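Appendix C reproduces, verbatim, an entry submitted by the partner laboratory led by Prof. M.T., so that reviewers can inspect both the input and the predicted structure.
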Amino acid sequence: MKISLTITAFCVGVASAVPLDSIHKPILSSSQQQYTTPELLNLILSLEHFQDAFYRQGLANFTQDQFAASGFPASFYSNLTDLASQEHTHVTSLTTTLQHLNITPVAECTYFFNATTPAVFVSTATLIEAVSVSSYISLLAKLRDAAYTQVYASVLAVEARHSAFVRAALGLAPFPSPYDTPIDLDETFTLAQLFTVSCPQENPLALTKFPTLSSSYSNHGAVGRVVTFVTYGKDIKIGEDCEPLYAAFLTLTGPVFAP
């Protein structure tokens, strides 16, 4: 189904179609669910698996010389390997913690990131790190165990440094806003699905993937420009008897809603 709307503010982010009354009451949203500490730790582990796999694949596919030939400074590759090592440490630490709690750790999924060049890889890293930071904000708000909250607040700080590092490598502002935008677990899951080929059936994750939504929006968007959205596998009815439909753009300074 095609929907056209006018961009009321220029922003880069994720768009999702929602009825007006679901802005504050998301349908089937993980924000309405209560999670145990082990469940939240497994959700964090799934996020860390995602990042670990991304950097592991990137370092396997591209050499230091290839990054240098793409214009990245000599120190970049060394810092990148340290970043990848830290993500792997997060995975091993979380796995050990869950095993000590007699909880089966979630297994790594199979991912395809389609990073065909070092530049594309680093550009994709900015997205993945942004998702990580925003996800951690929501996850920390759900943790009720003070000891775990402290540990993973420290991990969030490290993820924010990772995000700043990859953004700066592309000449982007390393810290573009005084606040980051939290995204709930279903939104995180939906974004991760863009790169997910398959997951083990035994993975204990009860999350909802939002319907696929594509648009004509590009980096050449501008205020006042009309954007067409297309939904796949889900019809959205618009008419006199239906609720107003809005697109929500997730930005660094908070969501922007456009009719």
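Residues 74-100 form the longest helix (27 residues). Additional entries are available on request from the coordinating office.
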